[in-house]
Description:
The complex is a heterodimer. Chain A is an all-alpha fold. Chain A is built from 15 helices and no strands. Chain A has helices at residues 10-17, 25-36, 41-63, 72-87, 94-116, 121-141, 143-146, 171-192, 195-205, 207-212, 217-243, 253-266, 272-291, 293-310, 314-327. In chain A, α3 (41-63) runs parallel beside α8 and α5 packs antiparallel against α11. The mean pLDDT of chain A is 87. Helix content of chain B is 73%, strand content 2%. In chain B, strands 1-2 form a two-stranded antiparallel sheet. In chain B, β1 (130-132) and β2 form a beta hairpin. The longest helix of chain B has 31 residues, at 2-32. The radius of gyration of chain B is 19 Å and the shape is globular. Chain B starts with a helix and ends in a 10-residue tail after the last helix. The interface between A and B is large, with 44 and 42 residues.
Amino acid sequence: MNATVKTDPTAELRNRHRWRPVEALPWLTAFAAFALLPDYAALGTQIIIMIIFALSMDLILGYAGVVSLGHAAYFGAGAYATGMLSALLGWNEPLTGLLAGGLAGGALGLLSGLVLLRYHGLTLLMLTLAFAILLQEAANTAAPVTGGFDGLQGISIDPIFGLFENDLWGHHYYWYSLSILFLVFLVARRIVHSPFGRSLVGVRENVRRMNAIGTPVFGRLVAVYTISAAMAGIAGGLFAQSNAYVTLDVLDFARSGTVLIVLVLGGTGRLYGAFLGGAVYMVLEDELARISPEFWEIGVGLVLIAVVLFFRGGLLGASDALMRLIRGRSPR
Amino acid sequence: MEALISILFDGLAYAMLLFIISVGLSVTMGLMGFVNLAHGAFAMVGGYVLVTLMTGYGLPFVAALVIAPVIVGIGSIPFERFLYAPLYKAGELDQVLLSIGLVFVTIGVVTFIYGPAPPAIPMPEFLTGQVNLGFREVPTYRFFIILIGCVMMAILWFAFERTLLGAKIRAAVDNRRMAQSVGIDVDRLFVLVFAIGSGLAALGGGLAIEIVGMSPTFAIQYLVFFLIVVAVGGLGSMGGAFVAAIVLGVLDTAGKYLWPDGGAFFIYAATVAILLYRPAGLFGRAS
């Protein structure tokens, strides 16, 4: 043992939490994208919403290691909460509307998490899957309040701060969404670098040992599940506001699957995977699906198979490996 | 009363379809612990292979129904060896993602070849119309499916419970390492069971064309039902899959007739309730 090693146990965490210059990259990219391609602001907004959704997934999947096939349940809960607040009750203020979306997602996450997280493996997969579909069927059945199959209509959102309307080009909403993403990201980043966040990694890596050293594993899982669900609810709320329309497919199995794919494509357990995965997936979908939908399906399928078999770290993991190769062997 | 019988009958036909497709999934998932979301894709491919055999090669329906599963079963072996086998020991997430990837590719390729519209096949005379069962007339084709389902169940039950191969499979499902150490070639069992499971899925896909309709998205659309049959019945339990398929098939059909708006809700609520109460399924053993 080296006697000069710092013994402060939080030093490592603080070091991880320090901002690095490269972390400005996603935000600079977002500015540059707007400056160069202002016509694509609407797509940009949808990408940002996907990133927020994938970030929420990363907290439970990438950090705590909980695999869910029904994360759209919380996205949809947020979307319907925000949408119904406006369409049914006439509450059109955007920020509080979004807050309601987050609260709805979080409340549902807490209640369902208390039950779901007691299960593991295939049973957990099936329960999350069935829970999301159950919610979708409930929304379908409750047509008088949700609009059912026809979707929830009549959402109108006031200008943000009373100033910025959802303009035809989607410029204001691009900046609005980007600001929300930044706030959500700050929270997520704070969480994963906290002792709480590290204990989640412990749960992911070796749940028996975490139990043995006295970590309240179930409580931690419920806590992170609730936070993650609230973030998904915010993403759903933004989705409802930016489209002024909510349909049953916010709760779809396809959406739960997509967010999983986006995250794994980018790289799990490192937050920035959500950014890279969200952007790459949405842009490719937009471009390839324009050529032909089959082309897109075959492409995304092959990429997914390749990622699972050869690039377990996703795009970020692959770029790490590339950097190491360039720099010679000096990992970390 | 009339309505009740016809619901029961339609429900049973649908249940047999679910059983034929899901039983392979149940055994492969029980045996290999592989969460295979691409099982529905094998069923879908089976349906389209049957369409090609009939419209492209002019085979009669029954012949195509026998040949298509053989083609799909043998064709699935390379997938098992090169894509699935490397992930047997990996986590569920990897397995889920790989099989979703496979589903996407399959849907894309099949749509590219056949287009998104549902295919139509000429049905033989003896399977159309109604058949008199003594107490009432029933649609012949549904009767045919129920018959096949029961015959399949009997054959599978016999193979599973009364043959050496079946004993090996049961041993490997219960305790793979123990089975290996007494000299059972589990790898070869995997290949065989996977091929048979995919073949059965293809048979179900072929039968499904005339009853629920076939399209490339069949691979996803009914996947949740197959998974529910497997999870509710219990992994690796053939009898469990049979019972779960019947319950699900009849309930779903009854729901669609009697309560079109909320029937599906009831199915998923029941699924969640059963899994909460019995995480390993009705007939599964808790591990």
